[in-house]
Write a structure and sequence with these properties.
It is a single chain. The protein is of the alpha/beta class. The chain has one domain: Aconitase, domain 4 (Alpha-Beta Barrel). 32% of the residues lie in helices and 16% in strands. The chain has seven helices and seven strands; from the N terminus they run βαβαβαβαβββααα. A seven-stranded mixed beta sheet has the order 4-3-2-1-5-6-7. A hairpin with a 4-residue loop joins β5 and β6. The chain is globular and about 65 Å long.
Length: 190
């Protein structure tokens, strides 16, 4: 998993509430167990519309998605964060996330940032005025900021935060304790 400490990048706004995982990546793309190529399937059905926000030149290279409320609802597919990461995103900002999507995102190196509705409205308005505005997501400080805006704290589970900061997933964490686990098992057998 890629390490996440601080990200300063452009953002793209997808101000649609209740975007479900089937909209993020349609079910027909779930036959793979490999993450390769999933970026091309990101919002595949919505991308058929030339006016869709991710089809716009201004969205190219954006690494932060500012999404509507209840992002990632629906089924529990891990492919949704895989597709977002493969599509170039490292963080998603919303007022709320579906629990399973939130957990899958954290386990795969995609940072879900929860903000208040008031801050979300302010951020969407600011990005509407300044589409090239760069946001900073500082995981160490647990802060979201941008030039001219006040830094705001965001919550994150301490274990997930530590894993992202170190660039390790749950399996890497366990493997990092292999000697202690082996010693424990040896004591138990004795």
């Amino acid at each position: 998993m890629a390490q996440f400490i601080t990200l300063t990048a452009r953002a793209v706004v997808l101000a649609v509430d209740n975007v479900d995982t089937d909209q993020i990546i349609p079910a027909r793309f779930l036959k793979v167990t490999d993450k390769a190529g999933l970026g091309g399937a990101l919002f595949c059905d919505w991308r058929k519309d030339p006016a869709f926000v991710l089809n716009q030149p201004a969205a190219q290279g954006a690494q932060i998605l500012v999404a509507g409320d209840n992002f990632g609802c629906g089924s529990s597919r891990e492919h949704a964060p895989w597709a977002l990461i493969a599509g170039g995103f490292r963080a998603v900002i919303s007022t709320s996330f579906a629990d399973i999507f939130h957990n899958n995102a954290l386990k795969n190196g995609l940072l879900p940032v929860v903000v208040t509705p008031a801050l979300h409205r302010e951020l969407v308005a600011q990005l509407g005025r300044e589409p090239e505005l760069q946001l900073t997501v500082d995981l160490e400080a647990q802060q979201l900021s941008w030039p001219g805006g006040a830094a705001t704290q965001f919550p994150i589970d301490p274990f997930a935060r530590d894993g992202l900061l170190r660039g390790i997933d749950q399996l890497d964490y366990l493997l990092g304790h292999a000697e202690q686990i082996a010693a424990f098992e040896a004591r138990q057998q004795a």
